[in-house]
Design brief:
73% of the residues lie in helices and 4% in strands. It contains 15 helices and four strands. By secondary structure, the protein is mostly helical. A hairpin with a 6-residue loop joins strand 3 and strand 4. Helix 7 packs parallel to helix 9. The protein starts with a helix and ends with a helix. A four-stranded mixed sheet has the order 1-2-4-3.
């Protein structure tokens, strides 16, 4: 039976109804504006910390201590203070707004308790990471930005390795998928991707979000397939298989390593530009620190964050390319275009399916749902044409 991919795509998206589509458009556009406001909030936090002078006081008070200890403490204290100053903004963007759009049902108490765990981790991690950055500035001089790229590569790979084992379980409960047709189907797919069967899990993703999600995370021996309980409750077996095929596609096609490479290159460029831009921004914020002074970490992080924000269209484009490839991998290996399209329609509730070309280029980390559903329908039509020959 032949189908019209354009008509099928429009029918699937329109099945959401005008109210849901308008809500998705509003939610998505609002999220894009939050990126701009987030930069302004970050500037205010940086200005407060610099003007407060607490980091300078800590450095002076610890004058008799080793340079390494002073640098770690200064970086860790900034991580702690900045997180607390950001807290009202974080509550608004990650809980209040998400609750208002029915994207989460997480109680505020649980949200804050998980935030406290994240705070402890970030304080320790930022302290160690910037100890490494400032050590490289001291040891390698003008080429510190190049050596820092190697530091980013090492840290990123380490985090990819340990995150599924040590970090993600702090925020969610991971359990084996119950016996049944879902587990049987996923085990067969895991075998093809050389992912051990004992690395297949379901997790309570509904704790934080009502979004339909699944993922393949980790590298080497820590690689695993994890499916949110939201997906298991709301999706058909074929939809679970299609989405899992997409996630396995990311793993098999090595997208994680491509993004690591991109991240390292962007880090090197951003560190290089930060080295040049730091004096100007330091003066504007009222800081007397130089690039190598750990007390100047608020300015350095702001400049790095701003530069990485400006590169978002580039990273989004690379991510969208990977998403297209993963969709095609699912279609080629699982061959369930209707199920993949049905699963994608569920994501249109929180990612407007019909953005403009400019909006997609600047802000979307995934191709539009309209494009992805059309791609699945094109595949279905091609398969139907081949069978008819």
């Amino acid at each position: 039976m032949t189908i019209n991919p354009v008509e099928e795509t429009a029918k699937l998206i329109d099945s959401l109804g005008p109210e849901a589509l308008n809500k998705a458009a509003e939610y998505t556009a609002g999220g894009h504006w939050l990126l701009l406001w987030g930069v302004l909030v970050s500037a205010v936090v940086t200005w407060i910390v610099v003007r407060w002078g607490l980091l300078d006081k800590i450095w002076t008070k610890m004058a008799a201590r080793s340079w390494a200890l002073k640098t770690f403490v200064t970086s860790a204290v900034f991580a702690f203070i900045s997180t607390l100053l950001f807290l009202p903004w974080t509550i608004y963007t990650d809980w209040w707004r998400e609750t208002g759009y029915d994207r989460t049902s997480q109680p505020i108490g649980d949200f804050l308790s998980q935030g406290a765990i994240g705070l402890i981790l970030s304080v320790f991690a930022m302290g160690l990471f910037f100890l490494g950055v400032y050590a490289l500035i001291r040891k390698t001089g003008k080429l510190w930005w190049l050596w820092s790229g190697g530091l980013v590569a090492g840290v990123t790979t380490f985090m990819l390795l340990v995150s599924p084992i040590l970090i993600e379980p702090l925020f969610n409960d991971f359990k084996p998928v119950p016996e049944g047709e879902v587990l049987t189907a996923i085990e067969a797919m895991a075998d093809e991707a050389d992912i051990p069967r004992d690395r297949i899990f379901m997790f309570d993703g509904s704790r934080q979000s009502n979004n339909f999600t699944a993922n393949v995370s980790g590298v080497f021996g820590s690689a695993r397939i994890a499916i949110s309980d939201v997906a298991l409750k709301e999706a058909s077996l074929d939809e679970v298989k299609a989405v899992t095929g997409h996630e396995i596609g990311h793993y098999v096609l090595g997208h994680i390593w491509r993004m690591v490479g991109v991240l390292v290159l962007l880090a090197i460029v951003s560190f290089f530009l930060a080295d040049r831009l730091f004096p100007w921004f330091a003066r504007k914020f009222g800081s007397g620190a130089t690039i190598g002074d750990p007390t100047g970490i608020p300015v350095l992080i702001f400049v790095m964050g701003l530069l990485l924000q400006l590169t978002q269209p580039l990273t989004n484009g690379i991510t969208r390319m990977g998403e297209r490839e993963a969709d095609n991998y699912s279609l080629q290996t699982v061959n369930l275009p209707d199920a993949l399209a049905g699963a994608l329609i569920k994501t249109a509730e929180y990612r407007y399916p019909r953005p403009s070309a400019l909006q997609e280029m600047l802000f979307y980390t995934h191709p539009s749902v309209e494009w992805r559903v059309r791609n699945a329908m094109d595949w279905k039509a091609e398969q139907g044409a081949r069978e008819a020959e």
